[in-house]
Amino acid sequence: MALLEITDLKVHFDTDDGVVKAVDGISYSVDRGQTLGIVGESGSGKSVSSLTVMGLSRARNARISGSIKFEGRELLTAADDDLRRIRGDDIAMIFQDPLSSLHPFYKVGAQIVEAVRTHRDVSKSQARDRAIEMLGLVGIPEPRKRADAYPHEFSGGMRQRAMIAMALANDPKLLIADEPTTALDVTVQAQILELIERLQSEFDTAVVVITHDLGVVAEVADEIAVMYAGRIVEHAPTDTMFAAPEHPYTWGLLSSIPRLDAPRDEELVPIAGRPPSLIQLPGGCSFHPRCPYVKPAHMETDPLLEPLGDDPRHRVACLLARDTRRKLWRELREGTVPSEARADVMHDEAPAQAEEASA
Amino acid sequence: MSHAATTAESGQTAPANGGGEPLMEIRDLVKHFPLTRGIILQRKVGAVQAVDGISFDVLRGETLGLVGESGCGKSTTARLLLRLMEPTSGSIRFEGQEIATATGQRLKTLRQDMQMIFQDPYSSLNPRKTVGTIIGEPFAIQGLHAAEGERRKTVRELMDLVGLNPEHYNRYPHEFSGGQRQRIGVARALALKPKIIVADEPVSALDVSIQAQILNLLRELQREFGLTLVFIAHDLSVVRHMCDRVAVMYLGRIVELATSEQLYAHPRMPYTGALMSAVPVADPRLAAQRKRQTLSGDVPSPTNPPPACRFHTRCWKAQEVCSVDDPPLEVKEGGNVAACHFPLTDDEVAERVPTFRAQQRRQA
What we know:
By secondary structure, chain A is α/β, with parallel strands linked by helices. Chain A contains 14 helices and twelve strands.
């Protein structure tokens, strides 16, 4: 049994402008000791999906459906009290901005003590020892002294480490890290990533890393899910995702970032346009207005996330034929501009649909 | 600072220039922000040494990158170059003329040649002005294209140039997305046909797919107009992509300066090595091969920087001499200019730096 199993999760918000489909039917699972990276641009629903796991998107205007099972227990229907017991204990979260997630009026040590005593029946001094131990573990120098400091006395990297110490104080089984290193310098980022990896191997924690940075997931994730407009459009083991991606959006992401192993004069191939409004999603494949290989049929049919025939661990939601996709990706890597490759796609339209139907 | 010493300085930076013609020459530039105590009688109790004696050239037509951790002084340097701030001491020459002390009308004329693109496309545009007014503002300030029709025409051309729809002339900034706003910022910077543009983190507020659009635009414009760019970013793969030469800053000093290729494949200063080792690589194979060199601790306070080599407190190669003798910025093996007593050897680089492997692989 997977530690966390999400099935067809939908999170819709009713607003004055219409229904915002922030998460629109996603499924994934995470095992103990495994790291899943969720990648997407702003507004792709990656943060909302994880906040929902924590029960933090229960706003009055939110409509949530589907299933989130943690160790076999359904979290979506769990009572607030039950959820509160799990949250911060079995499931912990690291937020992007450590300055606004730590209380400015309380000493860092006291905040960790509170996190411990909420879930463990221990004395204040025992909890304090635990807080100091955790601060030491995440590499804060002189933890006994620093526990009495206020958040503003810490640097950005130290605050993030204090957040991690707090998140891990109760030995969670699942750690959700939402953009854990975005606000940090590369050197501090490397420290934090190393820390998460080390703690994970020591405690066999499952980790979900949410980020827009493909470099970060390449380093830490075992599997990657790419989200676009509230859906997962591609899900694959990390090596496969970088070596043989199948979705044009994933290609777009990969060709938008300068590669450190490419010659410097390499041209970046940006994705045209911008992410769609989550209130009025385009019909058919929601990536079609930005997809360079769009065909008329793609504006009608909504692709499903389906496993590839030869690799069931690799799932992709794209209406293009498999052979066409492989050819396009190969050409893209060799420097063909998408607009040139497009001509090929239009030719083999008929077999494309036939194959998708049989798949 | 005597003239002879200045020449010696420029002699030091020259090799990394690759023989290009300097557009700007910066020598011993210092910016200290005083720390005061007291309300009426303000006593000076110290200074934040944001920029502490840096010298480099910006060559005509090149893109020079400035990298370093936050607080290293790269943004202060950018603002000093454009004279948006008064330097404490030192010299800034633009096309041979001293501009460090320029004021008033002279500064205003100078600004025609130097423009800036800011990080945050949300706060750097006046929300109450239309896009047309924002892009035309530099003309109004400089008194150019005074006729309304003429200015409108020029602004529309600029909008077209950076990929904005000229029909959106009368729209307000909030009607545009982040990427489009950054294009407005680029159009405004280009308006006066400057010789140099300083871009301070121009893409860090943008999504990955939009980021590439702006980077491509900057590269195109540079090719078309022969622009000189000073490019600041914390994303090291973006810097490598954009820049011909890169200067690495640490606590207000330049610690290494080299061509992009050379710096990323063969860093000499251990601090540069640590930066290059920390870059997240979007390639699981390269990422798995390297031994990550993490720096311990945080950057020391710029109010009270460590003596001699400022990096010695965090450097794994540091020896006694590093805390006593300040290493000069000098040419090391491979042509890098670096300030270090014990520069990295090729073997040390190979083990830690993924970009070194990438280059080897490419050459093979």
